[in-house]
# Entry
Amino acid sequence: MTSALELQPAVTARAPAKVNLELGVGPRRDDGYHDLATVYQAVGLHDDVTAAPADEWGCTVTGRDAGSVPTDEGNLALVAARLLAERSGARQPVHLSIHKQIPVAGGMAGGSADAAAALVACQELWSVAMERDELDRLAAEVGSDVPFLLHGGTAVGSGRGELVTPVLAQGTYHWVFVPVPGEGLSTPEVYAAFDARHEGRRVSEPTPGAEVMSAVRSGDPSALAAALSNDLQPDAVALQPRIGEIIGAALEFGALAAIVSGSGPTVAALASGQEAAIDLAVSLTASGAAEDVLRATGPVHGAQVLPTPRLT
Ligand SMILES: C[C@@](CO)(OP(=O)(O)O)[C@H](O)COP(=O)(O)OP(=O)(O)OC[C@H]1O[C@@H](n2ccc(N)nc2=O)[C@H](O)[C@@H]1O
Ligand SMILES: Nc1ncnc2c1ncn2[C@@H]1O[C@H](COP(=O)(O)OP(=O)(O)O)[C@@H](O)[C@H]1O
# Structure
């Protein structure tokens, strides 16, 4: 016999990866976080999260790097769904099916994307009406990057990255992402290396750079290339020297610029256009400099529910 649970349709939401066009890091705060002045851009690599009514909470993960993603209560999508249930009074557990395209522990915020997708999928499934500000605050409890993945586009992140202000941006940027083979990098470990490198020195409060703002307003990839920066890059490269080699290869093969994405180790290389991005991707793999490349454009929108396929 078909149960009432099975009759209720599942909801799928899709959320993008991000790259930090600028990542200015301030001193370590008393709560262990660092104040940031960052400019996020959402890019067209996506994870999909399907929320289905279930008898108990759970999740399964398929797709890229699925084996290194926790499926217990440490999964960020599950953390987000349970928090939303708690705050909204929703009582029905869900099973989350996560399909990953975003490299895991790569500095592209895949776990945060899954959390953002789980929030919008569950909000729809449970018919939860929540003000945007409240959802942002809840998202920030799950992780500093999660509010941005709800918004998408191009935006400034302040505070610990959770305070998001949209930025006027023009044009489409063509990126080639090079995941560095191996374990990935732990975000806290990279921040700890930043602290160790600045031991005994004053770290000033970060401010969003005028250069990157005017570059994204211009829509000119060369202007953006000149403005890209990441204060965590020296630390990520010191922890995984292979990153430096990949950045060098990307520049040699015609990237306008190449930086570490967030806390790394994925390398984000900016190309002048679509053809240049294809050429760069081919050169990187054909030369053996990269085992794997992912092309994506940005900006793209944030987490959103996908239309339910109509049954005919
Ligand atoms: C570095 C960045 C850049 O956008 O992204 P990733 O490279 O991880 O994707 C972010 O700051 C990561 O954000 P997110 O991954 O959501 O971090 P959280 O879960 O909030 O925090 C994990 C840990 O990172 C460190 N952390 C994070 C954010 C911040 N502003 N200062 C920190 O020091 C803290 O050690 C914290 O315990
Ligand atoms: N749904 C999820 N997808 C990916 N990683 C997750 C997820 N939930 C929890 N994690 C954990 O978060 C860590 C960081 O993953 P991720 O968000 O992909 O990288 P980053 O913080 O570098 O952007 C992973 O090592 C993994 O243990």
